[in-house]
Amino acid sequence: MSRDTEARVPDVILERYRLGELPADEAARVEHRLRTDEALRRRLDELEVSDREIRRCYPPEWLAEQVRERRRASVPGAPRPAPAWTRHWPLPAALAAAAVVLLVLAPRTFGPPLTGTAVSPAAPGSPDRIKGLEPSLTLYRRTARGSETLADGATVRAGDQIRVGYRAAGRAYGVILSVDGRGAVSIHLAAEDAKAAPLRSGETVLLDRAFELDDAPLWERFYLVVAEEPFALAPVVEAARRVALERQPAPLPALPSQFQQYVITLVKEARP
Amino acid sequence: MDGALDVEGLSQRYGPMVLRRCRQLLRDEDEAMDACQDVFVRLLERRDRLDARYPSSLLYTIATNVCLNRIRARGRRPAAPGDELLHRIAMTRSPAALSEARLTLDRLFGRHPESTRVMALLHYRDGLTLEQVAEQTGLSVSGVRKRLRGLRHTLLEMQGR
Description:
Helix content of chain B: over 70%
Number of strands of chain A: 12
Largest sheet of chain A: 7 strands, mixed
Radius of gyration of chain A: 23 Å
Oligomer: heterodimer
Number of helices of chain B: 8
Distance between the termini of chain A: 62 Å
């Protein structure tokens, strides 16, 4: 057992020591420990790293604005604040890391952007479909005041922060991925064992992380693929890769009939 | 500025500490950031109580209380191991508490002011000494000792029944 474990300096004491807000005698005790306790010094270093990460993901000016907005909304008669997720969006560096890029294809020249198609199931004749209760995919873009829903065919640009939501409507398993105009396939929702993730029921479920669009040209196309039974990720990724290589329009081709898929295409704004 | 407080300055200086505390207790990034914002809103509401020397102390205590309330509101048992004590403390007033251990804690904490939950968490889970809890919560050491002693006595009484 390490010395730090034996008489661990509580987190709050270390936090306040770093801020210079401990009473003098308490601060002196921490300083004394730091001279000989390597684990404690390591914890201090980790807090430094954490500070940088948090300030990068949630800039203080943004956090302050969210607080002021919530404070204003708490005044009687004021409109209710937006749901929590619309008030905070991790910033680019952390968000880009949240989407696991499985496959990046060689850049190539693509034709003009495809016309966006409405969110559409690939298996319209599926017997278990219930009118009005279809799985769906929804994309949101962060705005200065919160967020907006992006319709199929909406124009976006590099730097836009996007958050993905889905509604399972009773389907048990699903994968969400996207393909950009360079052919990069990114997985947004899957299980850790390279299989489809169990879907959560209820209203629109938001994925934990948002992400920032990069400067890939032409379009960013998002797919929700669902099924009643567990399925492997590989065939879906392969289909997405083929779409990118062959410049095929949505939906993903050659998926077995038990899959249903939903697609939204965002059109990238042409750069000057 | 909001009133006399520089919200941006407070966010810059204390935001990471508050968010870390919320992450630690809630184990959910979105909920932690949501709680973090609530903490600063409550600070604005209680700015008359702000200790100009040690704002971190009040912010940490508010964050702890906000998170306990959220854990209690969501009601489900945390999946992460080691959270049993946190969960039980948070759920002390839940009418749905059915286990004997939780009932014991319900009855135990039900006899004490709300802030006792925060003190209990700081002392029993976070490892602060009585003196540190007192300094952190702005109470006297004797006051903290009395409350925690009261808890122990209550617990012993309940165990003896």
